[in-house]
Amino acid sequence: MSKASASPVGVVAGREEVLVLPREVALGPVPWHGIRLERVSEVLAAIPRHGRFLPRAEVEGDDRWQQVIPHLVVSCGQTVLAMRRLGRGSERRLRGQVTLGVGGHINAEDGPLEGAFLRGCLREWAEEVVSPAPAKGRLVGLIKDGAGEVGRVHLGVLVMVTAGAEGVAVREEEKLEGRLLAVSELEVLYLEMETWSQFVYDRLLRGVAGPVPVTGPEITLPASPAGPAGRLGG
C-alpha cells in the first residue's frame, strides 16, 4: 500500500491528492468490465469508511486503488452533449478523443470524505458546463474499463443528467469543444470515443429515440451561467 498521507483533507505540498477506494471495496470480489446499473449507493456509502485522498502521481499506476470519477452524461430533449478533448487537457492519454461525460477527479480540496463526492461532482459541473438553468441528475451505476491503461485505475460513477430547455454548452473551451447532438449523430463518432463513452452509447443510448429512462438517487445541479469558470451565477 502507498505510504502517502491518508488525511481526508490534507494536501501534500505541490501535489494533487485524489479520492480513491481500495480495489476490493470499489469493484467487489469478482472482476467486471463495462457498466453495472447497481451498487452505486453502496460505493458512495463506502467512501467515508474506506476512502482516502492520495497523491495522484502515486496511484496512476497502482490498480490496488481505484480513483473515483463522476461521469455526467448530459441530455437535453433528444440530444446529448458530445465533447472532444483538446491539447490542453490534463490527461494526455485522452487528448483528441470524444467523451460523452463531464467530470474529473474528486480532490482533497472538496472537503471531508463525507459528502466529498457530491461536492466534487457539483464543482466539476460548474467548472466545465454552462447551464442557464438547473439540471437534474440521477446516479445510475458504475463504469469500469479493466483493459485500458487509464481505465484500470479509475472507477466511473455514471450520472445521467437532464438539462433544461435552454440547453448547455462547454465552458472550458481551451480544453474541450462540444455541442448537443442527436443520438443518431453519435454513431459516426463511435470509433473516436473513449471506452467509457462507448459503454454508455452501447448500453443506454443506441437505438433510443427520446430521453433515456433511468432510475437512481437524484441530485440537483445548480445553474452555472456563462462567466468565469467555476463561478456560479457570474
Structural summary, described in words:
The protein is of the alpha+beta class. It has a single domain (17-221), classed as Nucleoside Triphosphate Pyrophosphohydrolase. Helices cover 21% and strands 29% of the residues. It is built from 6 helices and 12 strands. The strands form 2 sheets. Strands 1, 2, 3, 4, 5, 6, 8, 9, 11 and 12 form a 10-stranded mixed sheet that branches. The chain has a two-stranded antiparallel sheet with strand order 7-10. A hairpin with a 2-residue loop joins strand 4 and strand 5 (79-85). The chain is globular. Residues 1-13 and 228-234 have low confidence and may be disordered.
The radius of gyration is 17 Å
Number of helices: 6
> What is the H/E string?
EHEHEHEEEHEEEEEHHE
Number of strands: 12
Poorly predicted sequence stretches spanning 5 or more consecutive residues: 1-13, 228-234
The level 1 CATH classification is Alpha Beta
CATH topology: Nucleoside Triphosphate Pyrophosphohydrolase
